[in-house]
Amino acid sequence: MTRKLSMSGAINEAMKLAMRKDENVILMGEDVAGGAQVDHLQDEDAWGGVLGVTKGLVQEFGRERILDTPITEAGYMGAAMAAASTGLRPIAELMFNDFIGSCLDEVLNQGAKFRYMFGGKAQVPVTIRTMHGAGFRAAAQHSQSLYALFTAIPGVKVVVPSTPYEAKGLLLAAIEDNDPVIFFEDKTLYNMTGDVPEGYYTIPIGKADIKREGSDVTVVAIGKQVHTALEAAEQLSQKGIEIEVVDPRSLSPLDEEAILSSVEKTNRLIVIDEANPRCSIATDIAALVADKGFDHLDAPIKRITAPHTPVPFSPALEDIYLPKAERVVKVVSELLGTPLEV
Amino acid sequence: MTRKLSMSGAINEAMKLAMRKDENVILMGEDVAGGAQVDHLQDEDAWGGVLGVTKGLVQEFGRERILDTPITEAGYMGAAMAAASTGLRPIAELMFNDFIGSCLDEVLNQGAKFRYMFGGKAQVPVTIRTMHGAGFRAAAQHSQSLYALFTAIPGVKVVVPSTPYEAKGLLLAAIEDNDPVIFFEDKTLYNMTGDVPEGYYTIPIGKADIKREGSDVTVVAIGKQVHTALEAAEQLSQKGIEIEVVDPRSLSPLDEEAILSSVEKTNRLIVIDEANPRCSIATDIAALVADKGFDHLDAPIKRITAPHTPVPFSPALEDIYLPKAERVVKVVSELLGTPLEV
Amino acid sequence: MKALESNKDVALTKEKAQWMYQKMVEIRNFEDRVHELFAKGILPGFVHLYAGEEAVAVGVCAHLNDKDSITSTHRGHGHCIAKGCDLDGMMAEIYGKVTGLCKGKGGSMHIADFDKGMLGANGIVGGGFPLACGSALTAKYKKTDNVSVCFFGDGAQNHGTFHEGINLAAIWKLPVVFVAENNGYAEATPFSYASSCKSIVDRAIAYNIPGIKVDGKDILAVYQAAEEAVLRARRGEGPTLIECVTYRNYGHFEGDAQTYKGDQEKAEHKQEKDAILLFRKHLLNEQLLAENEVVAIEKSVEAAVDQAVKFSEESPYPNASELLTDVYVSY
Amino acid sequence: MKALESNKDVALTKEKAQWMYQKMVEIRNFEDRVHELFAKGILPGFVHLYAGEEAVAVGVCAHLNDKDSITSTHRGHGHCIAKGCDLDGMMAEIYGKVTGLCKGKGGSMHIADFDKGMLGANGIVGGGFPLACGSALTAKYKKTDNVSVCFFGDGAQNHGTFHEGINLAAIWKLPVVFVAENNGYAEATPFSYASSCKSIVDRAIAYNIPGIKVDGKDILAVYQAAEEAVLRARRGEGPTLIECVTYRNYGHFEGDAQTYKGDQEKAEHKQEKDAILLFRKHLLNEQLLAENEVVAIEKSVEAAVDQAVKFSEESPYPNASELLTDVYVSY
Ligand SMILES: Cc1ncc(C[n+]2csc(CCOP(=O)(O)OP(=O)(O)O)c2C)c(N)n1
Ligand SMILES: Cc1ncc(C[n+]2csc(CCOP(=O)(O)OP(=O)(O)O)c2C)c(N)n1
Ligand SMILES: [Mg+2]
Ligand SMILES: [Mg+2]
């Protein structure tokens, strides 16, 4: 049975199902329940996550499995890595991905490297869930999209879902995975609803999804930008231009095959990524195609990204900071040599 | 007057000159002097840096300006940021760039963002010197090349010198700069010698250097890999192939102009970067050229990088981990359609 | 704990008393107004209000001049006001207007005013400890007698930077005053759960520095403790840790239903434990200020906050071109 | 400090005494050999030797079984040996041979053996605190009575992870024993300079946990303190901090000229304060072992280390294909 669920509802449901299935799955993070040791909240949460995504979990699984942590990202993230390598399967929530500054070592030098550095002796089945993305008026330290930083680290996998259906299936796959997986949740998508099947299912990490077929330009878009691309696709379609929207869904591993075969068809590539432009997933995908897809390219590879600045607070600035459908329409038109009438 | 100096000697000299010129320049880091408060070492250093790069500084400048820190990267790096924004011009040494895991926040969310986030109110003239690079048998946690991580952060500048002459001039420019600059030192280059002028001079950050002219292929190489490229260039030259070796010297800002005009001439691009391949400076440069230089390209853009794995310890593995001249020769030959006789 | 009730022998000049009362009322009024504006959907973003904790920021900043610096937190409005930031510029910043103290680029969590020694609110919990060491290092190196104050919460003191920052300040004898605002909660998590120490000052011993615990609702107690610590710092004797036991009247951020709080505690902090009411009573009892003077302050502050809102409403948003200023843009 | 000289009423079985002496001698011999091999240019990389500190690792690990786990440091050989790692596999790892415990991929700073509960040496100072909490969390959650021991240096205890890890262990009552190896220096920096506390145990109070300081050259003192702490952890009563005052006989790493050390301290630690000599004397005096038994151990260890070197020399390097195994490679 499929019903409408919000993105945050889908993520919540995935965690519930994973925890029912495997008692080694635990959840830890700041205020993932909230109200720890408050007398009137023993079996209840005060918050269930800063934006309510983990709401209700403590009711079902109790405070032994839903662990509120102090504000010690390095402490609990490192604990999650070692708990994972000694038999648990923790979900560790890093409230905002921006806070990786407080616990990068635990990912970069510990969890990500154990398996290789120890010659295969360790496995680290941890899932880090974290919020990212601009558009929330949350300013420079709470709005970044840092998935490139993780994609650059060998040993970790990186997932950025764009719909509730995929969020659920990919999160379940992440929890099942025996490598560390960083799971990015765009806070501005939490309320977006979509069809989500009931019950347990996984979507394989490493498989892209063609969100819309088209033959004129391949547009690879990350996370929320998939929706920007789809919006642009609608507008372009009315002018007779059909773009193919590819959602990689996971950045590491990256479904190179899917991207390359789309470009083989369209001969043109645009990447939309709201992260900062340098050494980003946008450059990564562009470089991939400039190498392995070069022979199919008829035009320069364009990237539509944030500017190389921190995220500004003012709504007036943040609104122009993010990629927009109009910009996509414009770039597509230019690429096809059919500039827009103004 | 120019004389031969080692890379570490050149870096050491740059710090001395900067500290003589401006008393607001201080140096802080772990064992940058060593032997703090040891009776018989009051005006002397025990170490002068873990590999001796800061040797002798404490003799000249005293322990008020050469500050040994506890092993608290977050603590002293954050202190450097605020000292910089309140009137000093600190050089903060992060012994190995791998240790950024312990202090990323101080760079990512503090120093790099102050100027923008505070609407221009703050400036943060700090220079972070740090060691990087594989080939030292230092294993996974002491051999990374993490310059892409910093290049991705708006607000910081990133310098990776490849010769003693440039190390000195670029470090002096970094110290003069009013934005945070991360200065990467390849530990395997410290003993490399080269001609270095005496006295104070700067090399502008953001200007690439053509290390060798050529018309057949543009090879952009980072740091130590410049020498790999030059070695390959020698070999290729004997076969009549002339590659142009471009050393960007700084990754942020990147001298796009220099790269693009070289490709305009050669119509082919290879990037050599010993860092891991995903979301790297190699992808960044490839993406740049796949966009703005597309019309001049006659062949796929190739990247010669480390594999997407941690750095292995075993000499047998580390030796094949790093890019090699033979591999460059091979890729160049393939690109030109003149495969090597085996 | 040094004193949980007012130390009656703290001698305040009338001028100082007036300044302190005014700053407390400014904070309260400002925050109440932000609360309303947020509820109406007028203000964007995450907003963390300082109402209830006024005695801490004001009692400490009463000892500082513009060359002394402070580091702040996500809950920074009170620190800004106590350190002398302009209300118009603050409010406009929270509105995201170009007339804001950071041109609207920072917002509530990133208000800074270096001319006033306000080194910035900070969205990163624990971010301030190392920074306070840095400005103190500048002061020490330049041999000024300036001090740095690091305000931080009970939640922040479990972060690694607390440990690193205080240890660094202690071994280098940096002129820092570490001021804990123990309001009992970090978001929805009680201090008593998250922290293994009973009192934050228990941690001072780990750094061999003085620790003073005071009732953070009693501005005189805060004032007195801060005086001692600031003087110690100015004399070059190194850092002090002060724990102020306090309470935030609103939720963690605007929108928080605060189910984790007890009804009684909520009520009593708004009445008998309210720092402003307590100080007001003290001022009148001790005849430091007359009723009409107190009322005059209250009225003038209300007008000032009205004016700040008006100023902000009328101010323009930043120009699109501001997106690319104040940063090195490498493409 | 609990005891700076042997607590004579520690009762050791003969078997335990034998095991302890053997492990100490194994560590010493192993490290002396690595020192020689490095000096000859045979071994690559950074190597940090544990010689001089044997009483700590062995005195603590004497209370552990294979299901108990330890986290280690850059100076990890001693911990590995005390926890039961195979000498052949260790030496081959340091050689970078495929027969090494980590197939040669880790090297000296990353030796791990999960079957023995050795969770890995660690090149990141302070890296072990959170990790020890993690394995302890597994034990607690699975309701085994296993414990985790976190070995760390005097330099590491200024890192933020010390604070975060111990606080976390304390509030969650995790079965962790935090064992400080205070050898007086972090690289070339004295403990007394870098740390604001006089003793590392002074910091236990910040976490409301027991702290015990012992002479880390006296294996019986270490043994006794560890027993108390391990039992407390097994009983579910939470973490303990033990400070062992010790000394490293070699430099920070091989190649260190050690100009920061005093001549006298160097000498005395090799003689009257040497932990192995002290324990040897104790064993003979108390007739726990006879002279010939002690000598037999010494001889057998020498042979074992010879064998480990031979094994390593004869082992092959890993195949090129190993470069891409044990990791998800995404291209
Ligand atoms: C490094 C980091 N972790 C987590 C957060 C999310 N966060 C913001 S405020 C807060 C609670 C802070 O509590 P406390 O220090 O007591 O300050 P208070 O809000 O009570 O003033 C948390 C967890 C953050 N901003 N930064
Ligand atoms: C995070 C980090 N910072 C710095 C270093 C470099 N480093 C390696 S060992 C060491 C000293 C450690 O001292 P201590 O903890 O006392 O251990 P000891 O070497 O004395 O056993 C330092 C600074 C590191 N490896 N990791
Ligand atoms: Mg609080
Ligand atoms: Mg030490």
UniProtKB/TrEMBL annotation, chains A, B:
Keyword Signal appears in the UniProt entry: no
Keyword Flavoprotein: no
Residue ranges constituting the Transketolase-like pyrimidine-binding domain according to the UniProt record: 5-192
MF-aspect GO terms: oxidoreductase activity
Pfam families, alphabetized: Transket_pyr, Transketolase_C
Keywords: Oxidoreductase, Pyruvate
Protein known as: Pyruvate dehydrogenase E1 component beta subunit
From TrEMBL, chains C, D:
Residues of the signal peptide: none
GO BP terms, alphabetized: pyruvate decarboxylation to acetyl-CoA
InterPro entries from the UniProt entry: DH_E1, PDH_E1_Alpha_Subunit, THDP-binding
Cofactor(s) essential for the protein: thiamine diphosphate
UniProt keyword list: Oxidoreductase, Pyruvate, Thiamine pyrophosphate
GO terms of molecular function: pyruvate dehydrogenase (acetyl-transferring) activity
Pfam families the UniProt entry points to: E1_dh
Domain Dehydrogenase E1 component: 23-320
PANTHER family in the cross-refs: PYRUVATE DEHYDROGENASE E1 COMPONENT SUBUNIT ALPHA, PYRUVATE DEHYDROGENASE E1 COMPONENT, ALPHA SUBUNIT BACTERIAL AND ORGANELLAR
Name by which UniProt lists this protein: Pyruvate dehydrogenase E1 component alpha subunit
Organism: Cytobacillus oceanisediminis
